[in-house]
Amino acid sequence: xxxxxxxxxxxxxxxxxxxxxxxxxxxxxxxxxxxxxxxxxxxxxxxxxxxxxxxxxxxxxxxxxxxxxxxxxxxxxxxxxxxxxxxxxxxxxxxxxxxxxxxxxxxxxxxxxxxxxxxxxxxxxxxxxxxxxxxxxxxxxxxxxxxxxxxxxxxxxxxxxxxxxxxxxxxxxxxxxxxxxxxxxxxxxxxxxxxxxxxxxxxxxxxxxxxxxxxxxxxxxxxxxxxxxxxxxxxxxxxxxxxxxxxxxxxxxxxxxxxxxxxxxxxxxxxxxxxxxxxxxxxxxxxxxxxxxxxxxxxxxxxxxxxxxxxxxxxxxxxxxxxxxxxxxxxxxxxxxxxxxxxxxxxxxxxxxxxxxxxxxxxxxxxxxxxxxxxxxxxxxxxxxxxxxxxxxxxxxxxxxxxxxxxxxxxxxxxxxxxxxxxxxxxxxxxxxxxxxxxxxxxxxxxxxxxxxxxxxxxxxxxxxxx
Length: 467
Ligand SMILES: C[S@@+](CC[C@H](N)C(=O)[O-])C[C@H]1O[C@@H](n2cnc3c(N)ncnc32)[C@H](O)[C@@H]1O
Description:
Rossmann fold, binds S-adenosylmethionine, EC 2.1.1.137, arsenite methyltransferase activity, S-adenosyl-L-methionine
Protein backbone atom coordinates (compact mmCIF):
# COMPACT_ATOMS: atom_id res chain seq x y z
CA UNK A 1 0.00 0.00 0.00
CA UNK A 2 1.18 3.45 -0.76
CA UNK A 3 1.82 5.46 2.37
CA UNK A 4 -0.09 8.29 0.69
CA UNK A 5 -3.10 6.31 -0.56
CA UNK A 6 -6.36 8.02 0.28
CA UNK A 7 -9.06 6.58 2.53
CA UNK A 8 -12.06 5.79 0.27
CA UNK A 9 -15.22 7.72 1.05
CA UNK A 10 -17.61 4.77 1.27
CA UNK A 11 -17.52 2.54 4.37
CA UNK A 12 -17.75 -0.57 2.17
CA UNK A 13 -14.63 0.43 0.27
CA UNK A 14 -12.81 1.08 3.53
CA UNK A 15 -13.78 -2.41 4.71
CA UNK A 16 -12.53 -3.84 1.39
CA UNK A 17 -9.20 -2.05 1.80
CA UNK A 18 -8.84 -3.37 5.36
CA UNK A 19 -9.73 -6.90 4.23
CA UNK A 20 -7.23 -6.79 1.38
CA UNK A 21 -4.50 -5.43 3.61
CA UNK A 22 -4.85 -8.08 6.28
CA UNK A 23 -5.45 -10.78 3.68
CA UNK A 24 -2.05 -9.92 2.23
CA UNK A 25 -0.44 -10.19 5.65
CA UNK A 26 -2.06 -13.62 6.11
CA UNK A 27 -0.88 -14.85 2.70
CA UNK A 28 2.63 -13.50 2.91
CA UNK A 29 3.24 -14.23 6.58
CA UNK A 30 4.95 -12.14 9.18
CA UNK A 31 8.55 -11.20 9.68
CA UNK A 32 9.24 -13.23 12.84
CA UNK A 33 11.59 -10.74 14.45
CA UNK A 34 9.10 -7.91 13.89
CA UNK A 35 6.18 -10.00 15.16
CA UNK A 36 8.11 -10.90 18.32
CA UNK A 37 9.08 -7.28 18.96
CA UNK A 38 5.47 -6.11 18.72
CA UNK A 39 4.15 -9.03 20.78
CA UNK A 40 6.61 -8.32 23.56
CA UNK A 41 5.89 -4.58 23.43
CA UNK A 42 2.24 -5.36 24.13
CA UNK A 43 2.82 -7.76 26.99
CA UNK A 44 2.90 -11.28 25.59
CA UNK A 45 5.28 -13.46 27.55
CA UNK A 46 7.83 -15.74 25.89
CA UNK A 47 5.97 -18.66 27.42
CA UNK A 48 2.67 -17.57 25.84
CA UNK A 49 4.29 -17.11 22.44
CA UNK A 50 5.97 -20.50 22.58
CA UNK A 51 2.67 -22.17 23.40
CA UNK A 52 0.88 -21.05 20.20
CA UNK A 53 1.58 -21.87 16.54
CA UNK A 54 4.26 -19.49 15.32
CA UNK A 55 2.18 -18.07 12.45
CA UNK A 56 -0.70 -17.22 14.75
CA UNK A 57 0.88 -13.97 15.91
CA UNK A 58 2.03 -11.53 13.29
CA UNK A 59 2.71 -8.28 15.09
CA UNK A 60 -0.88 -7.11 14.67
CA UNK A 61 -1.86 -6.86 18.34
CA UNK A 62 -2.00 -3.90 20.69
CA UNK A 63 -2.49 -5.78 23.96
CA UNK A 64 -2.77 -9.18 25.57
CA UNK A 65 -6.44 -9.63 26.53
CA UNK A 66 -6.16 -13.27 27.64
CA UNK A 67 -3.62 -12.28 30.31
CA UNK A 68 -6.29 -10.35 32.22
CA UNK A 69 -9.51 -12.07 31.13
CA UNK A 70 -9.38 -14.75 33.89
CA UNK A 71 -10.78 -17.37 31.52
CA UNK A 72 -11.85 -20.49 33.37
CA UNK A 73 -12.25 -24.13 32.39
CA UNK A 74 -15.47 -24.70 30.45
CA UNK A 75 -16.08 -21.07 29.52
CA UNK A 76 -17.31 -19.89 26.13
CA UNK A 77 -15.16 -17.19 24.56
CA UNK A 78 -15.25 -15.26 21.29
CA UNK A 79 -12.41 -13.22 19.82
CA UNK A 80 -13.44 -10.36 17.53
CA UNK A 81 -11.00 -10.00 14.61
CA UNK A 82 -9.02 -13.11 15.43
CA UNK A 83 -6.36 -12.79 12.70
CA UNK A 84 -3.99 -15.78 12.82
CA UNK A 85 -5.63 -16.94 16.05
CA UNK A 86 -3.08 -16.07 18.76
CA UNK A 87 -5.63 -15.05 21.40
CA UNK A 88 -8.00 -17.88 20.46
CA UNK A 89 -5.26 -20.45 21.14
CA UNK A 90 -4.29 -18.82 24.43
CA UNK A 91 -7.96 -18.69 25.48
CA UNK A 92 -8.55 -22.30 24.41
CA UNK A 93 -5.71 -23.45 26.69
CA UNK A 94 -7.56 -21.86 29.61
CA UNK A 95 -11.10 -22.87 28.62
CA UNK A 96 -9.97 -26.47 28.17
CA UNK A 97 -11.74 -29.28 26.32
CA UNK A 98 -15.17 -28.37 27.69
CA UNK A 99 -14.99 -24.73 26.64
CA UNK A 100 -15.78 -23.27 23.24
CA UNK A 101 -13.56 -20.58 21.74
CA UNK A 102 -14.58 -18.93 18.48
CA UNK A 103 -12.45 -16.55 16.41
CA UNK A 104 -14.34 -14.20 14.08
CA UNK A 105 -12.70 -12.41 11.17
CA UNK A 106 -13.82 -11.13 7.77
CA UNK A 107 -10.64 -12.02 5.89
CA UNK A 108 -10.88 -15.42 4.19
CA UNK A 109 -7.10 -15.61 4.15
CA UNK A 110 -6.87 -14.94 7.89
CA UNK A 111 -9.57 -17.56 8.56
CA UNK A 112 -7.75 -20.10 6.37
CA UNK A 113 -4.46 -19.36 8.17
CA UNK A 114 -6.08 -19.62 11.61
CA UNK A 115 -7.73 -22.94 10.66
CA UNK A 116 -4.37 -24.30 9.47
CA UNK A 117 -2.86 -23.17 12.78
CA UNK A 118 -5.66 -24.92 14.70
CA UNK A 119 -5.06 -28.11 12.71
CA UNK A 120 -1.37 -28.01 13.77
CA UNK A 121 -2.56 -28.27 17.40
CA UNK A 122 -5.38 -30.72 16.59
CA UNK A 123 -7.90 -28.19 17.88
CA UNK A 124 -11.33 -28.68 16.31
CA UNK A 125 -14.85 -27.31 16.61
CA UNK A 126 -16.62 -26.95 18.96
CA UNK A 127 -13.53 -26.48 21.16
CA UNK A 128 -11.89 -24.07 18.70
CA UNK A 129 -13.64 -22.62 15.63
CA UNK A 130 -12.81 -19.86 13.20
CA UNK A 131 -15.70 -18.23 11.39
CA UNK A 132 -15.62 -15.78 8.49
CA UNK A 133 -17.96 -12.92 9.25
CA UNK A 134 -18.26 -9.14 9.13
CA UNK A 135 -18.01 -7.72 12.61
CA UNK A 136 -20.01 -4.62 11.79
CA UNK A 137 -23.05 -6.71 10.89
CA UNK A 138 -25.09 -9.20 12.93
CA UNK A 139 -22.80 -11.77 14.58
CA UNK A 140 -23.55 -15.45 13.80
CA UNK A 141 -23.47 -16.15 17.55
CA UNK A 142 -26.31 -17.22 19.83
CA UNK A 143 -27.72 -14.70 22.29
CA UNK A 144 -26.67 -15.12 25.94
CA UNK A 145 -24.12 -17.80 25.03
CA UNK A 146 -20.71 -16.24 25.69
CA UNK A 147 -18.87 -15.83 29.00
CA UNK A 148 -16.09 -13.63 27.71
CA UNK A 149 -15.58 -11.49 24.59
CA UNK A 150 -12.02 -10.64 23.60
CA UNK A 151 -10.69 -8.35 20.91
CA UNK A 152 -7.20 -7.18 20.09
CA UNK A 153 -6.62 -4.14 17.92
CA UNK A 154 -9.67 -4.53 15.71
CA UNK A 155 -12.57 -2.28 16.69
CA UNK A 156 -10.75 0.87 15.53
CA UNK A 157 -10.76 -0.65 12.02
CA UNK A 158 -14.55 -0.82 11.75
CA UNK A 159 -16.62 1.91 10.12
CA UNK A 160 -17.96 4.36 12.72
CA UNK A 161 -21.52 3.01 12.79
CA UNK A 162 -20.15 -0.53 12.68
CA UNK A 163 -18.25 0.05 15.93
CA UNK A 164 -21.47 0.98 17.76
CA UNK A 165 -23.35 -1.88 16.15
CA UNK A 166 -20.66 -4.39 17.12
CA UNK A 167 -20.77 -3.41 20.79
CA UNK A 168 -24.56 -3.86 20.81
CA UNK A 169 -24.06 -7.30 19.29
CA UNK A 170 -21.44 -8.08 21.94
CA UNK A 171 -23.99 -7.19 24.61
CA UNK A 172 -26.57 -9.45 22.95
CA UNK A 173 -24.31 -12.52 22.77
CA UNK A 174 -22.90 -12.26 26.30
CA UNK A 175 -24.49 -14.30 29.03
CA UNK A 176 -25.87 -12.20 31.87
CA UNK A 177 -22.82 -11.51 34.04
CA UNK A 178 -20.50 -12.14 31.07
CA UNK A 179 -17.55 -9.84 30.48
CA UNK A 180 -15.47 -8.15 27.78
CA UNK A 181 -11.75 -7.51 27.63
CA UNK A 182 -11.07 -5.38 24.58
CA UNK A 183 -7.64 -4.15 23.62
CA UNK A 184 -7.89 -1.26 21.23
CA UNK A 185 -6.30 1.97 20.10
CA UNK A 186 -7.84 5.20 21.32
CA UNK A 187 -7.14 8.63 19.84
CA UNK A 188 -5.63 11.18 22.18
CA UNK A 189 -6.72 14.14 20.09
CA UNK A 190 -8.43 15.11 16.85
CA UNK A 191 -6.46 13.85 13.85
CA UNK A 192 -5.37 16.31 11.22
CA UNK A 193 -7.30 16.04 7.98
CA UNK A 194 -4.21 14.71 6.19
CA UNK A 195 -3.81 11.94 8.73
CA UNK A 196 -7.54 11.20 8.87
CA UNK A 197 -7.73 10.52 5.13
CA UNK A 198 -4.50 8.54 4.97
CA UNK A 199 -5.40 4.93 4.16
CA UNK A 200 -2.24 3.48 5.61
CA UNK A 201 -2.80 5.26 8.92
CA UNK A 202 -6.34 3.86 8.96
CA UNK A 203 -5.39 0.29 8.06
CA UNK A 204 -2.54 0.60 10.56
CA UNK A 205 -5.10 0.97 13.38
CA UNK A 206 -4.39 4.62 14.05
CA UNK A 207 -6.69 7.04 12.26
CA UNK A 208 -9.89 5.00 12.69
CA UNK A 209 -9.48 5.24 16.46
CA UNK A 210 -12.20 6.91 18.53
CA UNK A 211 -11.50 9.38 21.27
CA UNK A 212 -12.11 8.22 24.83
CA UNK A 213 -15.41 10.09 25.28
CA UNK A 214 -16.73 8.67 21.99
CA UNK A 215 -15.79 5.13 23.03
CA UNK A 216 -17.44 5.56 26.44
CA UNK A 217 -20.60 6.73 24.73
CA UNK A 218 -20.91 3.75 22.38
CA UNK A 219 -20.17 1.33 25.24
CA UNK A 220 -22.93 2.94 27.27
CA UNK A 221 -25.37 2.95 24.39
CA UNK A 222 -24.67 -0.75 23.89
CA UNK A 223 -25.72 -1.43 27.50
CA UNK A 224 -22.34 -1.49 29.27
CA UNK A 225 -22.80 0.92 32.18
CA UNK A 226 -19.64 0.00 34.07
CA UNK A 227 -16.92 0.11 31.37
CA UNK A 228 -13.44 0.74 32.70
CA UNK A 229 -10.78 2.12 30.34
CA UNK A 230 -7.14 1.49 31.24
CA UNK A 231 -4.29 3.07 29.33
CA UNK A 232 -1.84 0.16 29.07
CA UNK A 233 1.02 2.50 28.11
CA UNK A 234 2.03 0.13 25.33
CA UNK A 235 4.54 1.79 23.02
CA UNK A 236 2.77 2.30 19.68
CA UNK A 237 6.10 3.20 18.12
CA UNK A 238 6.85 -0.53 18.30
CA UNK A 239 4.94 -0.72 15.03
CA UNK A 240 6.90 1.99 13.36
CA UNK A 241 9.47 0.71 10.96
CA UNK A 242 10.54 2.44 7.82
CA UNK A 243 7.52 4.25 6.36
CA UNK A 244 4.93 2.20 8.13
CA UNK A 245 2.35 3.56 10.52
CA UNK A 246 0.48 1.39 12.98
CA UNK A 247 -0.32 -2.25 13.42
CA UNK A 248 -0.57 -3.46 9.82
CA UNK A 249 2.99 -2.46 9.64
CA UNK A 250 5.94 -3.75 7.74
CA UNK A 251 8.72 -1.64 6.37
CA UNK A 252 7.94 -0.84 2.78
CA UNK A 253 10.01 0.57 0.00
CA UNK A 254 9.97 4.31 0.13
CA UNK A 255 7.89 5.80 -2.67
CA UNK A 256 6.80 9.15 -3.86
CA UNK A 257 3.16 8.07 -3.89
CA UNK A 258 0.83 10.82 -3.03
CA UNK A 259 -2.56 11.44 -1.58
CA UNK A 260 -3.83 12.46 -4.96
CA UNK A 261 -1.95 9.91 -7.02
CA UNK A 262 -3.75 7.02 -8.68
CA UNK A 263 -1.46 4.62 -6.86
CA UNK A 264 -3.65 2.88 -4.28
CA UNK A 265 -2.82 -0.78 -3.92
CA UNK A 266 -4.96 -2.02 -1.06
CA UNK A 267 -2.41 -4.06 0.77
CA UNK A 268 0.09 -3.57 3.50
CA UNK A 269 1.82 -6.90 3.45
CA UNK A 270 5.47 -7.57 3.80
CA UNK A 271 6.31 -7.36 0.15
CA UNK A 272 3.64 -4.98 -1.01
CA UNK A 273 5.05 -2.14 -2.93
CA UNK A 274 3.63 0.87 -4.56
CA UNK A 275 4.43 1.96 -8.05
CA UNK A 276 2.91 5.31 -8.78
CA UNK A 277 1.60 5.88 -12.26
CA UNK A 278 2.91 8.72 -14.28
CA UNK A 279 -0.39 10.56 -13.75
CA UNK A 280 0.16 10.65 -9.99
CA UNK A 281 0.82 14.11 -8.66
CA UNK A 282 2.80 14.33 -5.52
CA UNK A 283 0.95 16.70 -3.23
CA UNK A 284 1.54 14.85 0.05
CA UNK A 285 4.72 12.91 0.25
CA UNK A 286 5.30 9.84 2.35
CA UNK A 287 7.82 11.69 4.41
CA UNK A 288 5.22 14.30 5.31
CA UNK A 289 2.86 11.62 6.66
CA UNK A 290 5.68 9.77 8.38
CA UNK A 291 6.81 13.07 9.86
CA UNK A 292 3.32 13.75 11.23
CA UNK A 293 3.27 10.48 13.06
CA UNK A 294 6.94 10.35 13.95
CA UNK A 295 5.74 9.65 17.49
CA UNK A 296 2.55 7.56 17.25
CA UNK A 297 2.18 7.81 21.04
CA UNK A 298 1.51 11.51 20.64
CA UNK A 299 -1.66 10.76 18.68
CA UNK A 300 -3.02 7.58 20.16
CA UNK A 301 -2.69 5.10 23.00
CA UNK A 302 -3.38 1.42 23.57
CA UNK A 303 -6.22 0.80 26.01
CA UNK A 304 -7.72 -2.22 27.64
CA UNK A 305 -11.46 -1.93 28.18
CA UNK A 306 -13.30 -4.03 30.76
CA UNK A 307 -17.05 -4.25 31.11
CA UNK A 308 -19.74 -6.71 32.12
CA UNK A 309 -23.29 -7.41 31.04
CA UNK A 310 -25.61 -6.94 33.95
CA UNK A 311 -26.29 -10.24 35.71
CA UNK A 312 -29.87 -11.47 35.90
CA UNK A 313 -31.68 -10.25 38.99
CA UNK A 314 -32.24 -13.94 39.76
CA UNK A 315 -28.52 -14.82 39.72
CA UNK A 316 -27.73 -14.80 43.43
CA UNK A 317 -24.14 -13.61 43.51
CA UNK A 318 -23.74 -12.06 40.09
CA UNK A 319 -21.96 -15.10 38.73
CA UNK A 320 -22.34 -16.00 35.09
CA UNK A 321 -25.38 -18.21 34.60
CA UNK A 322 -23.96 -21.51 33.48
CA UNK A 323 -25.84 -23.02 30.56
CA UNK A 324 -24.63 -25.37 27.85
CA UNK A 325 -25.63 -23.11 24.96
CA UNK A 326 -23.72 -23.63 21.72
CA UNK A 327 -21.88 -20.44 20.80
CA UNK A 328 -22.31 -20.71 17.04
CA UNK A 329 -25.77 -20.26 15.60
CA UNK A 330 -24.81 -22.73 12.89
CA UNK A 331 -22.10 -25.37 13.34
CA UNK A 332 -21.53 -25.19 9.54
CA UNK A 333 -19.97 -21.73 9.93
CA UNK A 334 -16.89 -23.32 11.49
CA UNK A 335 -16.03 -25.04 8.20
CA UNK A 336 -15.12 -23.91 4.69
CA UNK A 337 -17.75 -23.36 2.03
CA UNK A 338 -17.29 -26.21 -0.44
CA UNK A 339 -16.53 -25.62 -4.11
CA UNK A 340 -17.93 -28.82 -5.65
CA UNK A 341 -21.55 -29.52 -6.61
CA UNK A 342 -21.87 -33.32 -6.58
CA UNK A 343 -24.29 -35.09 -8.92
CA UNK A 344 -27.62 -36.36 -7.68
CA UNK A 345 -28.88 -39.92 -7.77
CA UNK A 346 -32.55 -40.85 -7.18
CA UNK A 347 -33.78 -43.07 -4.36
CA UNK A 348 -34.97 -45.55 -7.04
CA UNK A 349 -31.48 -45.71 -8.54
CA UNK A 350 -29.98 -46.30 -5.10
CA UNK A 351 -32.54 -49.08 -4.52
CA UNK A 352 -31.50 -50.68 -7.85
CA UNK A 353 -27.86 -50.59 -6.75
CA UNK A 354 -28.75 -52.25 -3.44
CA UNK A 355 -30.79 -54.96 -5.14
CA UNK A 356 -28.26 -55.70 -7.83
CA UNK A 357 -25.04 -55.74 -5.82
CA UNK A 358 -24.26 -58.55 -3.40
CA UNK A 359 -23.07 -57.21 -0.05
CA UNK A 360 -19.44 -58.21 -0.68
CA UNK A 361 -19.30 -56.16 -3.88
CA UNK A 362 -20.89 -53.06 -2.45
CA UNK A 363 -17.82 -51.85 -0.65
CA UNK A 364 -16.09 -51.42 -3.99
CA UNK A 365 -19.02 -50.28 -6.14
CA UNK A 366 -20.88 -47.97 -3.84
CA UNK A 367 -21.48 -46.94 -0.27
CA UNK A 368 -24.38 -45.02 1.23
CA UNK A 369 -23.64 -42.50 3.96
CA UNK A 370 -26.39 -41.27 6.29
CA UNK A 371 -25.23 -37.97 7.80
CA UNK A 372 -28.23 -37.38 10.06
CA UNK A 373 -27.61 -37.37 13.77
CA UNK A 374 -30.69 -37.22 15.94
CA UNK A 375 -33.37 -37.56 13.34
CA UNK A 376 -33.38 -41.20 12.30
CA UNK A 377 -37.07 -41.84 12.96
CA UNK A 378 -38.50 -44.18 10.35
CA UNK A 379 -35.26 -45.97 9.54
CA UNK A 380 -32.44 -45.60 7.04
CA UNK A 381 -31.07 -47.12 3.85
CA UNK A 382 -30.07 -50.69 4.73
CA UNK A 383 -26.32 -51.05 5.03
CA UNK A 384 -25.72 -47.31 5.14
CA UNK A 385 -22.87 -45.94 7.22
CA UNK A 386 -23.75 -43.46 9.97
CA UNK A 387 -21.60 -40.33 10.03
CA UNK A 388 -22.79 -37.19 11.80
CA UNK A 389 -22.48 -34.19 9.48
CA UNK A 390 -21.33 -32.06 12.44
CA UNK A 391 -18.00 -33.89 12.68
CA UNK A 392 -17.72 -35.03 9.07
CA UNK A 393 -15.28 -32.36 7.88
CA UNK A 394 -12.82 -33.11 10.67
CA UNK A 395 -13.00 -36.83 9.89
CA UNK A 396 -12.27 -36.46 6.16
CA UNK A 397 -8.73 -37.94 6.26
CA UNK A 398 -9.98 -41.13 7.90
CA UNK A 399 -13.11 -41.18 5.68
CA UNK A 400 -10.97 -40.89 2.55
CA UNK A 401 -8.81 -43.81 3.65
CA UNK A 402 -11.92 -45.96 4.00
CA UNK A 403 -13.76 -44.95 0.83
CA UNK A 404 -11.19 -43.79 -1.72
CA UNK A 405 -11.58 -47.01 -3.75
CA UNK A 406 -15.39 -46.89 -3.61
CA UNK A 407 -16.73 -45.75 -6.98
CA UNK A 408 -19.91 -44.05 -5.78
CA UNK A 409 -20.17 -42.59 -2.30
CA UNK A 410 -23.81 -41.58 -1.90
CA UNK A 411 -24.75 -39.10 0.83
CA UNK A 412 -28.15 -38.29 2.23
CA UNK A 413 -29.78 -36.51 5.16
CA UNK A 414 -33.42 -35.76 6.02
CA UNK A 415 -34.37 -34.29 2.67
CA UNK A 416 -30.88 -33.94 1.16
CA UNK A 417 -31.15 -30.19 0.98
CA UNK A 418 -28.59 -29.33 3.68
CA UNK A 419 -26.18 -31.68 5.43
CA UNK A 420 -26.19 -34.38 2.72
CA UNK A 421 -25.08 -32.15 -0.17
CA UNK A 422 -22.68 -30.30 2.14
CA UNK A 423 -20.85 -33.46 3.23
CA UNK A 424 -20.86 -34.78 -0.34
CA UNK A 425 -19.30 -31.52 -1.56
CA UNK A 426 -16.64 -31.56 1.16
CA UNK A 427 -15.77 -35.13 0.21
CA UNK A 428 -15.63 -34.27 -3.50
CA UNK A 429 -13.42 -31.24 -2.75
CA UNK A 430 -11.14 -33.47 -0.71
CA UNK A 431 -10.94 -36.03 -3.52
CA UNK A 432 -10.12 -33.24 -5.98
CA UNK A 433 -7.47 -31.74 -3.70
CA UNK A 434 -5.80 -35.14 -3.48
CA UNK A 435 -6.19 -35.88 -7.21
CA UNK A 436 -8.21 -39.04 -6.53
CA UNK A 437 -10.45 -40.13 -9.41
CA UNK A 438 -11.36 -43.60 -8.15
CA UNK A 439 -14.22 -42.31 -6.01
CA UNK A 440 -17.05 -39.85 -6.61
CA UNK A 441 -19.45 -38.14 -4.20
CA UNK A 442 -23.16 -38.23 -5.02
CA UNK A 443 -26.28 -36.99 -3.25
CA UNK A 444 -29.44 -39.09 -2.91
CA UNK A 445 -32.17 -36.69 -4.08
CA UNK A 446 -34.96 -36.13 -1.58
CA UNK A 447 -32.95 -37.80 1.21
CA UNK A 448 -34.56 -40.02 3.85
CA UNK A 449 -37.99 -38.53 3.14
CA UNK A 450 -37.96 -39.70 -0.48
CA UNK A 451 -36.44 -43.04 0.50
CA UNK A 452 -38.97 -43.80 3.23
CA UNK A 453 -41.89 -42.65 1.07
CA UNK A 454 -40.89 -45.31 -1.47
CA UNK A 455 -39.33 -48.09 0.60
CA UNK A 456 -40.23 -47.72 4.30
CA UNK A 457 -42.01 -51.11 4.33
CA UNK A 458 -39.34 -53.00 2.37
CA UNK A 459 -37.16 -54.77 4.91
CA UNK A 460 -34.58 -55.71 2.32
CA UNK A 461 -34.01 -52.04 1.62
CA UNK A 462 -34.82 -50.20 4.82
CA UNK A 463 -33.23 -50.77 8.18
CA UNK A 464 -35.68 -49.82 10.92
CA UNK A 465 -33.01 -49.69 13.61
CA UNK A 466 -32.34 -46.33 15.06
CA UNK A 467 -28.70 -45.47 14.49
C1 LIG B 1 -4.87 -5.65 13.46
S1 LIG B 1 -5.47 -7.21 13.05
C2 LIG B 1 -5.53 -8.00 14.64
C3 LIG B 1 -5.54 -9.50 14.55
C4 LIG B 1 -5.52 -10.25 15.88
N1 LIG B 1 -6.53 -9.77 16.78
C5 LIG B 1 -4.16 -10.15 16.53
O1 LIG B 1 -4.05 -9.54 17.58
O2 LIG B 1 -3.20 -10.70 15.96
C6 LIG B 1 -7.17 -6.87 12.70
C7 LIG B 1 -8.01 -8.07 12.26
O3 LIG B 1 -9.38 -7.66 12.25
C8 LIG B 1 -10.00 -8.09 11.06
N2 LIG B 1 -11.06 -7.11 10.75
C9 LIG B 1 -10.92 -5.79 10.56
N3 LIG B 1 -12.10 -5.22 10.29
C10 LIG B 1 -13.03 -6.21 10.31
C11 LIG B 1 -14.45 -6.26 10.11
N4 LIG B 1 -15.14 -5.17 9.80
N5 LIG B 1 -15.07 -7.45 10.20
C12 LIG B 1 -14.36 -8.58 10.50
N6 LIG B 1 -13.02 -8.59 10.69
C13 LIG B 1 -12.35 -7.42 10.61
C14 LIG B 1 -8.89 -8.11 10.03
O4 LIG B 1 -9.18 -8.97 8.94
C15 LIG B 1 -7.68 -8.54 10.85
O5 LIG B 1 -7.50 -9.93 10.83
